[in-house]
């Protein structure tokens, strides 16, 4: 019986002294082995394993039959996920049933039948801690363990294989064990036992990887023959040389492993057997209908609902999702492959860069997400012209950090956690906008994958019409795989945070708007007003950046704005642009669907200020924000890019709890507006497209859409129907 | 007293967030590079946003060369003492004697119980901690050839093999505020590790010291057998009346006063800003040591 598992070779290192074990594990890595498993005698196995993880960089790691009760299963589950995150997804979990517990803890082991049951319960709890298909707390009422509503997480970096051993496999295999460890002597007999247990648990026997420990042998040829037979006749897929000294380990890695690989590959080829790992039925059980998972190109990185990392990718910043498949291409060619696969599936398609989109639906329910976050390189192409190439998956925090050492910055959004792709194809309004323009105004070229899978470059001379469309409606035309920007020289900047009394709300808005319009272009910023609290004055948070590094200029610029209303509190710092944009890394876990309305306005007129005040006082917005635009943005003719709202000095957004009530108020404010800023607009009514793209722009976009995406593959954000 | 005459230790207290493990590792490296003596991590195994502290300590130990490490403090209810003892000794052996065992009785009982742990009252928690210290010291007593038995109320050991012995005398430091815990420290532990922000006044050091010293005397131990440490928070600023809010030289004066008047000899800064840790290690620590050494030689 050959289960056709790709072969893996490792070393089981037994710690007589912990230092010796750690050295042996490093040698196993140096020799190119796939896996090292460790067990302590006196030494604590988990401590030794964590230490070895810190001293190695590539090799797979597993405790060799650790007793799951030692640290309590829920704690062990969390520890295993943490070690997998620390070690970059290298962990496997070899668990034992506690027969060795007496030596370790002085607590008598359970009788074998009960020990097997306890191990099954422990595996269920460990997998439950990792579980990412539900947000519900973990509960387990077993004979041996009781978990009373523990929080789940973190999800490990990859699906940690769990394997165990012994002669009572049913509870562990039913609970999700992925592998079974046996000895070379017991292999033949054990395989049938495992196969039957797998079938009883409703699993495919090929899902269960067979691991076998083998004793070192003096003669490599005999050793090789033995292993080849075990692989081809008894289904062994992973070989662990047992407690080998240095010479034996070298002989194994350098002579036996290549010979076994070659012989097994030849025999499999002759028999027409294709190597493949069958995914766990516990993963497959979470698959969604409508997606042909078996047809996903094997070289693509995927995350599906049963996978460990699913919790980290299912949702976006403000929107909950439950996609059936997330594809994570690492190259432009893989983007094309992912797109070709997705187009063949009759389910929704979403494209995601940073996942911060409020208008962009970069997740879905039951569909496919192409997540380009791995395309995140930031590369200086030419110092002279400050030409920089940036992948769509980079975040603005990373961009600012990478450009700072050159004394450069790129006008971006106001929050560093946002991804490059979604912002640079739609606008980009942030702390440098009045001085340096929108992010897309700094764009000089893009490479993108079109709906038909072709990879094209667009700039002012090549595919110029496409380049025009990408700057403002990019999400409709393809998946950008890299952007080339001309960035600006920006040193340290003044960053001011004011808390202002906005009791005279309309007057405050009007005066603030006038002060901004009167300010030189080196001033950009925003104000935020929350839901008013009964009996308290309306408070505005004002944040401003002055692109100057001398205190005098900064204060000169700020004074007129600070004078528009009583200043309750303020801080002013001079710091690098990258410090303003800095956010720690972290994923998204949004839930529900955000309700936000967006607009551009040329001036904060008395009428607009009065209407905005009515909105604020209605309590229907918990976050009302006005950001500055104008300046350099308005230097660009309205027809130069698909982003047409060039006359606006301000961009407004309101988030509210109720779509119907917010819409009712916002719709009435429409006469005061001169357009929409796409990325904050969640309204799906078709007339928003006309607000976003004025007549001639929309006509041109439709024509281009018919040319570049006639089947309307890209439809998730302000869909321009062909 | 109370300057107990210990050499001074300066350490960091880094949030073990799992959202960006490389950031945690970087801060540990910053601690070592800033010549801090100690890097510590809180231990809340029920907190899903944190890396497992034991795993992290072992991993960081493997990636550093010089700095000492401790949990701050290890959650006893979710870490069985016999396993913990062997793990602590293993880590001390692997790291060349760089591990110290900060230990706590546990406090968030709902969360502990939810994770499969046993709920205890605060008083029971102290008794369990006392037994746990006996278990830990019994396992470490590798030279003792008798199998280890202990029939406690909370922990039973039925003939475990002893060992390994740690590479050095691992300090057992307890996070404690109340008299029963303080008495336990005096009787059995090697260090007292409270968090200064939980104190209403620094005089609580004096009150705690008095209880610890009396309990130590009763157990026939000198007061200096117990090191006094403190988790501290603060910021580097213009200064003023507030503790630890001025420039590094003012921090040094204030910490030296805590050492000379209250006997505190370990300062662990709760801060995740690399620049702050660098100032603490490079400027505050040497200046404090200098002030304390000068005063100690004057008093001699």
From TrEMBL, chain A:
Residues 318-490 form the FAD-binding PCMH-type domain. Belongs to the oxygen-dependent FAD-linked oxidoreductase family. The lineage of its organism: Bacteria, Bacillati, Actinomycetota, Actinomycetes, Streptosporangiales. This is FAD/FMN-containing dehydrogenase. The keyword Oxidoreductase applies. The keyword Cell inner membrane does not apply. PROSITE patterns: FAD_PCMH, OX2_COVAL_FAD. Keywords: FAD, Flavoprotein, Oxidoreductase. GO terms for molecular function: FAD binding; oxidoreductase activity, acting on paired donors, with incorporation or reduction of molecular oxygen. Its cofactor is FAD. Pfam families: Bac_luciferase, BBE, FAD_binding_4.
UniProtKB/TrEMBL annotation, chain B:
Keywords: Monooxygenase, Oxidoreductase. The keyword Cell inner membrane does not apply. The keyword Transmembrane helix does not apply. Residues 15-231 form the Luciferase-like domain. Pfam families: Bac_luciferase. GO terms for molecular function: monooxygenase activity; oxidoreductase activity, acting on paired donors, with incorporation or reduction of molecular oxygen. InterPro entries: F420-G6PD/mer, Luciferase-like_dom, Luciferase-like_sf. This is Luciferase-like monooxygenase. It comes from Nonomuraea jiangxiensis.
């Amino acid at each position: 019986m050959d289960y056709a598992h790709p072969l893996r070779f490792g070393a089981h290192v037994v710690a007589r002294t912990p230092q010796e074990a750690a050295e042996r594990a490093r040698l196993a890595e140096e020799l190119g082995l796939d896996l090292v498993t460790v067990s302590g005698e006196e030494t604590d196995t988990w401590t030794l394993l964590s230490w070895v993880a810190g001293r190695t960089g590539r090799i797979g790691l597993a405790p060799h039959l650790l007793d799951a009760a030692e640290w309590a299963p829920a704690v062990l589950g969390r520890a295993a996920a943490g070690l997998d995150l620390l070690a970059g997804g290298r962990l496997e979990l070899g668990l034992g049933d506690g027969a060795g517990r007496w030596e370790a803890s002085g607590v008598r082991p359970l009788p074998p039948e009960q020990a097997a049951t306890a191990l099954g319960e422990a595996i269920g709890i460990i997998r439950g801690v990792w579980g990412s298909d539900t947000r519900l707390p973990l509960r387990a009422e077993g004979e041996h363990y009781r978990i009373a509503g523990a929080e789940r997480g973190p999800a490990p970096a990859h699906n940690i294989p769990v394997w165990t051993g012994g002669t009572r496999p049913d509870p562990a295999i039913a609970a999700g064990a992925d592998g079974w460890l046996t000895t070379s002597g017991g292999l033949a007999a054990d395989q049938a036992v495992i196969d039957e247990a797998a079938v009883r648990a409703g699993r495919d026997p090929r899902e269960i990887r067979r691991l076998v420990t083998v004793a070192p042998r003096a003669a490599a040829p005999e050793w090789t023959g033995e292993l080849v037979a075990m692989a081809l006749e008894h289904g062994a897929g992973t070989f662990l040389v047992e407690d080998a000294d240095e010479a034996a380990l070298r002989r194994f890695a350098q002579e036996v492993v290549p010979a076994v690989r070659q012989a097994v590959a030849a025999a499999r080829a002759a028999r027409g057997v294709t190597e493949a790992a069958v995914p766990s039925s516990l993963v497959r059980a979470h698959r969604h209908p409508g997606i042909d998972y078996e047809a996903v190109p094997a070289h693509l990185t995927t995350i599906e609902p049963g996978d460990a990392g699913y919790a980290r990718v299912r949702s976006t910043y403000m929107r909950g999702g439950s996609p059936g498949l997330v594809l994570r291409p690492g190259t432009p060619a893989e983007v094309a492959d992912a797109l070709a696969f997705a187009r063949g599936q009759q389910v929704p398609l979403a494209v995601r860069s940073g996942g911060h989109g409020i208008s962009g639906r970069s997740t879905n329910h039951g569909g496919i997400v192409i997540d380009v976050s791995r395309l995140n390189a930031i590369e200086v192409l030419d110092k002279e012209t400050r030409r920089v190439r940036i992948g769509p998956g980079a975040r603005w925090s990373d961009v600012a950090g990478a450009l700072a050492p050159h004394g450069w910055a790129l006008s971006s959004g106001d929050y560093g956690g946002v991804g490059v792709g979604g912002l640079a194809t739609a606008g980009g309004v942030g702390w440098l906008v009045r001085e340096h323009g929108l992010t897309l105004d700094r764009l000089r070229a893009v490479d993108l994958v079109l709906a038909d899978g072709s990879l094209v470059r667009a700039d002012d001379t090549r595919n110029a019409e496409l380049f025009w469309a990408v700057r403002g409606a990019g999400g409709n035309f393809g998946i950008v795989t890299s952007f080339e920007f001309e960035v600006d020289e920006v040193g340290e900047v003044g960053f001011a945070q004011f808390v202002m009394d906005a009791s005279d709300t309309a007057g405050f808005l009007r005066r603030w708007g006038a002060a901004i319009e009167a300010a030189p272009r080196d001033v950009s910023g925003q104000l935020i007003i929350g839901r008013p609290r009964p009996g308290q004055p309306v408070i505005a948070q004002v944040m401003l950046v002055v692109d100057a590094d001398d205190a005098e200029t900064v204060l000169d610029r700020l004074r007129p704005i600070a004078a528009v209303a009583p200043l309750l509190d303020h801080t002013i710092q001079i710091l690098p642009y990258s410090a303003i944009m800095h956010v720690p890394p972290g994923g998204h876990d949004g839930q529900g669907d955000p309700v936000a309305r967006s607009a551009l306005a040329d001036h904060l007129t008395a009428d607009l200020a009065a209407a905005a005040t009515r909105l604020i006082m209605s309590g229907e917005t918990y976050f009302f924000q006005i950001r500055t635009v104008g300046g350099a943005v308005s230097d660009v003719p309205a027809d130069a890019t698909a982003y047409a709202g060039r006359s606006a000095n301000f961009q407004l957004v309101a988030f509210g709890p109720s779509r119907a009530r917010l819409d009712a108020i916002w719709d009435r404010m429409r006469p005061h507006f001169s357009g929409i800023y796409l990325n904050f607009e969640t309204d799906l009514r078709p007339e928003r497209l006309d607000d976003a793209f004025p007549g001639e722009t929309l006509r041109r976009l439709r024509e281009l859409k018919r040319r570049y995406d006639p089947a309307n593959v890209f439809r998730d954000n302000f869909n321009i129907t062909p | 007293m109370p300057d107990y005459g210990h050499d001074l230790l300066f350490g960091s207290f880094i949030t073990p967030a799992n959202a960006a493990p490389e950031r945690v590792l970087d801060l540990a490296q910053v601690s070592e590079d800033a010549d801090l003596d100690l890097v510590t991590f809180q231990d809340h195994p029920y907190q899903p946003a944190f890396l497992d502290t034991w795993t992290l300590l072992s991993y960081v130990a493997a990636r550093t060369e010089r700095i000492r490490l401790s949990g701050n403090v290890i959650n006893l209810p979710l870490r069985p003492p016999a396993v913990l003892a062997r793990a602590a000794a293993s880590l001390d052996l692997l790291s060349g004697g760089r591990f110290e065992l900060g230990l706590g009785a546990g406090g968030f009982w709902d969360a502990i119980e939810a994770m499969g742990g046993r709920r205890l009252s605060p008083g029971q928690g102290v008794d369990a901690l006392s037994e746990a210290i006996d278990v830990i010291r019994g396992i470490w007593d590798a030279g003792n050839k008798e199998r280890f038995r202990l029939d406690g109320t909370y922990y039973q050991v039925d003939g475990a093999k002893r060992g390994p012995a740690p590479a050095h005398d691992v300090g057992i430091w307890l996070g404690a505020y109340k008299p029963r815990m303080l008495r336990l420290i005096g009787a059995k532990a090697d260090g007292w590790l409270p968090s200064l922000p939980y104190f209403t006044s620094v005089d609580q050091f004096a009150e705690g010291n008095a209880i610890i010293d009396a309990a130590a005397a009763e157990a026939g131990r000198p007061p200096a057998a117990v090191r006094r440490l403190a988790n501290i928070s603060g910021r580097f600023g213009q200064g003023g009346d507030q503790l630890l809010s001025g420039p590094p030289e003012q921090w040094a004066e204030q910490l030296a006063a805590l050492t000379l008047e209250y006997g505190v000899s370990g300062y662990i800064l709760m801060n995740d800003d690399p620049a702050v840790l660098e100032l603490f290690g490079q400027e505050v620590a040497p200046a404090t040591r200098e002030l304390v050494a000068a005063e100690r030689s004057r008093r001699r």
